[in-house]
Recover the amino acids of this structure.
């Protein structure tokens, strides 16, 4: 693991309370091995997710004044999704500074997108708690493209296929379609399907068949990821 001082140099922020950044860089596997109750970055990740969302939302609202709410939502989703946070984390070499348990260390935890994305959010929370909103916002906005704009995406017909292709770029990610319910009489039944990424619901669809509901769930997931799914 790299030193705290080196990481501070990379992100351009010096912590007054070093315990905060130490906890932000501590994965649950390390805390569990060392039997440190509440010592992982999971609670900080929870807070960091909210700070990230408000900073990105505020930036998009203020800089894309002619863009409708729906497009702003798609843009925000594409900027705060795990894939984007993984890229941001790589830019500050976050993986080098993580405290990992032996199992995670030996199985490539330092490069795992989910671990890096979560730690990235935890670092945001640590900065927020240590210095307030302004330094946290400054840290986040360094990763947002200055020429960000609404871009036209290809039109996809098979939404399930394109979603699967996107997810397969990260081998550890898993997409699953779950039947969440059925509505209406037998002659006019509607199926409700949720699509989950690593057990997290990322889309929901309703259709006359399970296949149609799955396609619509994948369509919603793609739209939240910033794709023009039509």
């Amino acid at each position: 693991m790299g030193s705290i001082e080196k990481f501070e140099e990379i992100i351009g922020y010096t912590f007054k309370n070093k315990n905060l950044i130490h906890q932000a860089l501590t994965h649950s596997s390390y805390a569990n091995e060392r039997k440190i109750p509440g010592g992982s970055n999971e609670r900080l990740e929870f807070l960091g997710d909210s700070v990230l969302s408000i900073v990105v939302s505020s930036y998009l609202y203020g800089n894309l004044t002619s863009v409708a709410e729906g497009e702003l939502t798609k843009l925000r989703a594409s900027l705060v999704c795990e894939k984007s946070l993984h890229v941001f984390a790589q830019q500050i070499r976050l993986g080098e500074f993580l405290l990992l348990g032996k199992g995670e260390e030996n199985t490539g935890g330092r490069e795992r997108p989910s671990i890096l994305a979560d730690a990235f959010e935890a670092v945001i929370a640590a900065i927020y708690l240590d210095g307030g909103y302004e330094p946290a916002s400054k840290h986040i906005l360094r990763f947002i493209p200055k020429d960000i704009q609404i871009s036209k995406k290809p039109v996809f017909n098979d939404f399930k296929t394109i979603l699967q292709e996107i997810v397969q770029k990260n081998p550890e990610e898993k997409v699953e379609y779950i039947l969440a319910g059925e509505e209406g009489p037998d002659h006019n039944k509607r199926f409700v399907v949720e699509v989950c990424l690593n057990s997290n619901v990322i889309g929901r669809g309703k259709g006359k068949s399970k296949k149609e509901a799955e396609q619509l769930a994948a369509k919603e997931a793609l739209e939240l990821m910033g794709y023009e799914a039509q």
In short: The mean pLDDT is 88. The CA atoms of residues 45 and 118 lie 6 Å apart. The beta strands are 175-183, 190-197, 200-207. The two ends are 46 Å apart (CA to CA).
